[in-house]
Amino acid sequence: MVKNTGRKYFDFDDRLLELATETEREIRPAFERIESIAFSNQQKVLAAFINNGVGESCFTSSTGYGYGDVGRDKLERVFADAMECEDALLRHNFMCGTHALTVALFGVLRPGDTMLCVTGMPYDTIQSVIGISKQPASGSLKDFGIAFEKVDLLSDGSVDIDGALRALQSNSSVKMVYIQRSRGYSLRPSLTVEQIGEICDAVKGVRPEVIVMVDNCYGEFVQLTEPCVHGADLIAGSLIKNPGGGIAPTGGYIAGRSDLVEMCACRLSTPGTGREVGCTLGHSREMYMGLFSAPHVVGEALKTASFCAGLFSRLGYGVTPQPDECRADIIQSVMLRNPESLIAFCQGIQSGSPVDSMALPEPWDMPGYDNKIIMASGSFTLGSSIELSADAPLREPFAVWMQGGLNYAAGKTGILAAAQRMLDQGLLSLSSGRNDLK
Predict the structure, then answer these.
(1) pTM for this structure?
(2) Alpha helices in 228-367 (DSSP H)
(3) What does pLDDT average to over the chain?
């Protein structure tokens, strides 16, 4: 058996490599579970391609209005099948996940309506869309007379379903219940599709007409099913996260009930033209390939996250989720305790990246955020979160949120680079014969 082969290319401490080997041995059952889910999801996506008759002609480029783009329309049917819902709008001209979510919100909400978020305060960039951020932005939902309410999470980070039902019963203007599946920059647990189903059942039991929308970013293909199977009416996300498979260069999606998807299409383009317009400009092949690769790539990212949790848990840090925990998204949080360790971790991730490894990430005032943010992402697609990346606001508890990894071997190497940089800077110590901090 060849040992410590990473030494040939990266100068990792032998004790760190030994910890990595022990970590992999310990989390093998988690890897097997992840691989089983990836196999099932890959079959689902392959069947969607086959059942919809994807052919070479689907990759033909269109320009201008994009009328009659068969490949574009068929891709949306394939994606709807992959997401197990009625319909989907999948376009390269969604600029990011926040844009897709924004189009969905403006597509179905009207002046006088209320959006009720039942997962506490939503992610930083959506706060600007709603109109509740500390840095006001023009054109928010608030500007258009759409109100916002939230139900805080319980002390254990779970959704307060009783509180949500009380809010529904006390405000007849609530048109949408909004669920953020992923944890965002918080340490609460991400929501499984089963938990989302419990929320949907409770909401529909009281107000069946209310639209349940899920911010599905980071959650696609992590579990065997998607939120629409469990009662969600609308989901949205980014193609430079899970469903683009690291191949789609840009884009996003909205999926769910056909009538709601059509309303969103009219918001993305114009009322009256809806989804009939929108040229593909040669992006179809990449988007098909990305979707096809997504289940496998998500599995690799999940294994990278599990390894990160296992290694840093052994190094003495708090992690969530735990190494062997069943996951609802690809994000891994590590509590690094101080800003110096947080910065070193991100700089280590950057140094182990295939692109811009020579760059040195520093905290900065990023638009849409209320704290300085540090981001490490040496990716082929700028800002891609399915490629190995790490980011965090510089605030207590100085946790880092790590996600992605196109393949596990490279992802593991990036995690080791992060730990090695912390070790080199004297921010952690490996005591002889022990797997924790001094």
Answers:
(1) 0.94
(2) 258-268, 284-314, 339-351
(3) 94
